Amino acid sequence: MPITTAYEINKLMARYGVKFGLYKNGEFIEQLFPYDAIPRVISNSEFELLDKGLVQRVNALNCFLKDIYSGAKIVTDKVVPEEFVYISKGYLQECAGIVPPEGVYSHISGIDLVQAKDGKWYILEDNLRIPSGASYPLIARELSRIADPEAYSTNNVVDNRNYSDMLHETMDFVNRGGLNVILTPGRYNAAYFEHSYLAERTGALLVKASELFVDNAVLYMKDYLGVKARVGAVYRRISDEYLDPMTFVADSLIGVPHIMDAYRAGNVAIINAPGNGVADDKGIYYFVPKMVKYYLGEEPILQNAPTYLPYYENDLKFTLENIERLVIKDVSEAGGYGVVFGSELSKEKLDEMKALIIKEPRRFISQEVIDFIDLDIMDENGVAVPRKADLRAFVLTGKTTRVWASGLTRFSRVVGSFIVNSSQGGGFKDTWVLSR
Amino acid sequence: MGTISVEYGSNLYWLGRYAERTYTTLNTFFEYYDKTLDKDKNSYKEFLESLEIDDKYSDNRHFIRGFLYDKDSFCVMSTLRFAHDNALVCRNVIGSEALAYIQLAMDAFSSSRDAKNLRLALMPVIDYLLAFWGSLDDKLANGEERTIIKCGKFIERLDLYFRFSYNHKLIKNEYEMLCHILARVREGLCNTQHLAVLTDALATENYKARLKEVLESLNKIFEEQVS
């Protein structure tokens, strides 16, 4: 791809305000999300395998959430230790006994994968709370079809511009009667572009908490003449803890008082369901392949990265003995934070880390470092250079569970770095799935 | 769409006002700018007076750069930024295309800063603002959202035309446009009683004597209902 095409696409990105926000020293800064015009290409047969594996995994995770909040048979059957469920930050006692509309907990799942150098895909992380990022490859495709039409007439690329239809269908499927809305914390949220763009594309109303209210366990939006309109589904882009000040953090200004009452009464769908954090906890991740067998009676199609739980004595011993070559993850952190590579630590820091793991074994997991493949990105001179990249696949659950034939490929802009998160300077590229 | 909250209505209204303020102010600014070339180097003082802005500028050169690019809320750069702020939160209604024209206007405005020929360099800003309105008309043919934005547009335009003492016929035309739009809004959205002052003032050509009263009434038409 010529550098001029890449330049044109980035110019179009700027035109359409494809940005994300960051807070630096208390100041909100909006910047363009660095886009690389060389797409990741996934063959048709490779995608077929990913599709099956991801559908299987998300179905198992939905089963797990249903189970955990209505009896927790998987705990009783000792497949998952209760310590990993009930002390997880993501477990919400307030959600116990609530069955969400149509029994769907994770409507939009963002599953992070990497491809090892032998071609095998590994799941790195499940994101079942508010996985973000779909809007970026969605608009990138729209714009790159303008800037580089030839690429789409000569390659057999599956059109990914159906994401908004998929999302709309998911919202409609669980809607309890009324409007579909996207609830945003507001203009100064890091992902505000995504909120507004998805609202535009799905036809949902973009609202802030101050525009919603609950009356008699029904959620409404009030218009400027005081006329109220019922809301049937809320795609919320607000964390659980801030969602309802009457139930969670009392001084939340971005939540809707009593929205949990409406949800509990079955009068509104909340997408994704509150309490999902228990299933994407880094500690629970270890057990997902076991969930697949337990709930679905199937062998997992996609594998986790080899993971050790210091909570188990053998794994603790292994972690301490091999820490120099492992990656240690703090289960309570996200966004690439709390990730430490043993190989990068001094002896002193390694000892400190070991002591911390011994003191709080439940707080950490350790993993083998997957030497995942580099993808070419174009540097400022138009020269292709290799960088580490992962893939966030989006899996939507409504009437059925479907994998979006695309995804967000994030790459590190630092040579050799495994940290691809946008909040830490990473960029993104489009993901092509070939139709044959 | 159907359901517009108070806050959203306010964003739409102010989007209309700030986009129009940028457009009309720029056009009027260049009329005065033209006069400063060879007729009256101090004509900018009259321009500032019309807008009730204190003259803090040392000369017309200082005024030209300062009024366009300084950070004061009345400066053109600021009004365009306010338009952008409001457009950004209305993307789902106005569409990415209309928002992009405001973004392009912002970019063109920023890059004009060092231009030798400001008038030429700022022409694309005017073009993008016109394209913005065209894009809105294309996307929101009949919606209530369009009516609210247009309310903002024509209220702002009349406000500035009154201040700059545009000719009576022109003002009357714009006034009729505003009435035409107000006739389409849902009952209760606007306080059309305030139109009476404008009707009365425009019945004669001597509205200048009642300028303060006229501007107050004009600004209450929408804002009394929104707040």
Structural summary, described in words:
The complex is a heterodimer of chains A (436) and B (227). Chain A is built from 14 helices and 21 strands. Chain A has 436 residues and is of the alpha+beta class. In chain A, the strands form four sheets. In chain A, strands 3, 4, 5, 12, 17, 18, 19, 20 and 21 form a nine-stranded mixed beta sheet that branches. The longest helix of chain A has 25 residues, at 44-68. Chain B has one domain (6-226). In chain B, helix 1 packs parallel to helix 8. The model of chain B has no long low-confidence stretch (mean pLDDT 91). With 227 residues, chain B is mainly α. Chain B has helices at residues 6-38, 43-50, 60-69, 76-88, 91-94, 96-112, 118-139, 144-163, 168-182, 195-203, 211-226.
Approximate helicity band of chain A: 25-40%
* Morphology of chain A: globular
Mean pLDDT rating of chain A: 93
Q: Please state roughly what percent of the residues of chain B sit in beta strands, choosing from under 5%, 5-15%, 15-25%, 25-35%, 35-45% or over 45%.
A: under 5%
Low-confidence stretches of chain A: none
| Unreliable segments of 5+ consecutive residues of chain B | none
Whole-number tally of structural domains of chain A: 2
**Span of the ends, CA to CA of chain A:** 22 Å
Q: Residue-averaged pLDDT of chain B, rounded?
A: 91
Rg for CA atoms of chain B: 18 Å
β-strand number of chain A: 21
Structural class of chain B: mainly alpha
**SSE-based structural type of chain A:** alpha+beta
Q: How many helices of chain A does DSSP assign?
A: 14
Would you spell out the secondary-structure blueprint of this structure?
The complex is a heterodimer of chains A (436) and B (227).
Chain A: H1 3-15, E1 19-24, E2 27-32, E3 35-42, H2 44-68, H3 73-76, H4 83-86, E4 108-115, E5 121-127, H5 135-147, H6 149-154, H7 163-174, E6 179-183, H8 192-202, E7 205-207, E8 212-215, E9 218-222, E10 228-236, H9 240-243, H10 259-264, E11 269-271, H11 282-285, H12 288-296, E12 303-304, E13 307-308, H13 313-322, E14 326-330, E15 339-341, H14 347-359, E16 364-368, E17 374-378, E18 384-397, E19 401-403, E20 408-411, E21 427-433
Parallel strand pairs in A: 3-21, 5-12, 6-7, 6-10, 10-11
Antiparallel strand pairs in A: 1-2, 4-5, 4-18, 8-9, 9-10, 13-16, 14-15, 14-16, 17-18, 18-19, 18-20, 20-21
Helix pairs in contact in A: 1-5, 2-12
Chain B: H1 6-38, H2 43-50, H3 60-69, H4 76-88, H5 91-94, H6 96-112, H7 118-139, H8 144-163, H9 168-182, H10 195-203, H11 211-226
